[in-house]
Amino acid sequence: MKSPVVGGRGVLAKRNPPGSDGVVALAGNPNTGKSTVFNGLTGLNQHTGNWPGKTVTLAKGNYRYQNKLVTLVDLPGTYSLLANSTDEQVARDFICFGKPDATVVVVDATCLERNLNLAFQVMEITPKVILCVNLIDEAKRKQIEVDYGKLAALLGVPVVPTAARDKVGLNTLKEAIHQMVFLHKQPQPRTVRYSQEIEAAVAKIQKELEPYLQGKIDARWVALRLLDGDTTIIAEIKKYLQAETTEMAETAEMANMAEMAEATESAGATEASELAPRAHETGGLEVVKCYK
């Protein structure tokens, strides 16, 4: 089988590399130790290049666990998936259109509330998320304690504490990946809820999009991206579906213009796109309660 295919500006579809039993994406902010987690899991069984058509580095590696060969794709370090940069677009497109079997989001144990903005965005795309809370050794040094059980209950996804430099927790992370990918234990991530006005706008746009997306892409997530003003998403969906979706684009554009204006006016915000980060930050602040 072929390896992940990237066409034009975005990933079109995931293909398991030869011999691989599953593909897992590794996402995270810069400076969370994501690359250390990647190296700790894959060892020397990795190679780097560029994403096709991009200057962004593509790192892939393999590890074997419970007689399963897992391919790990190390996505560019980003603070969000809003596609404001090439790195963000590459990460967003692989998680959304590459359809990895699971996505591990690496966060810094010393500043969870800041890192979780990205985690919430990934959870809006896919329920197949594992939160890797790395740098627990640094947190201990700073006398920061986290209630990981409470954090998992709050987010609705598995939470694995690690200190990747010392290989602490990496086998537990492999087990969490194994259970999600091969034992099909799918979590139920917390859904970020927005203001009443935004939720009404999302519901209307979502209803317009669902007949065209046919369950292949989360319609709620696409509606949110349109309200964020992300016009690139339609082009990427067209590539992914490998069919003409002009009608979908026209419907989405009309719904987007009307609903975004109405939602923005009702919410009293200068831009509707301000509301998504605000909601994610609110969720992140709730995580402060998980500190002991």
Briefly characterize the structure.
The chain is α/β, with parallel strands linked by helices. Helices cover 45% and strands 17% of the residues.
How would you describe this structure to a colleague?
α7 (196-213) packs antiparallel against α10 (246-267). Mean pLDDT is 81; it is low at 1-14 and 267-279. This protein has 11 helices and 9 strands. It has 2 domains: 5-181, Rossmann fold, CATH 3.40.50; 196-279. It has 292 residues and is an alpha/beta fold. It has helices at 34-42, 86-97, 112-125, 136-141, 148-155, 170-181, 196-213, 219-227, 232-241, 246-267, 275-286; strands spanning 5-7, 10-13, 22-28, 46-50, 57-65, 68-74, 102-108, 129-134, 159-161.
Draw up the topology in text.
Blueprint: E1 5-7, E2 10-13, E3 22-28, H1 34-42, E4 46-50, E5 57-65, E6 68-74, H2 86-97, E7 102-108, H3 112-125, E8 129-134, H4 136-141, H5 148-155, E9 159-161, H6 170-181, H7 196-213, H8 219-227, H9 232-241, H10 246-267, H11 275-286
Notable characteristics:
alpha/beta; 9 strands; two-stranded antiparallel ribbon; 7-stranded mixed beta sheet; 292 residues; disordered N terminus; Rossmann fold
Helix content: 40-55%
Number of helices: 11
Note the beta-strand portion.
15-25%
CATH class assignment of the largest domain: Alpha Beta
| Strand order, sheet with most strands | 4-5-6-3-7-8-9
> Which structural category do the helix and sheet elements fall into?
alpha/beta
| H/E topology pattern | EEEHEEEHEHEHHEHHHHHH
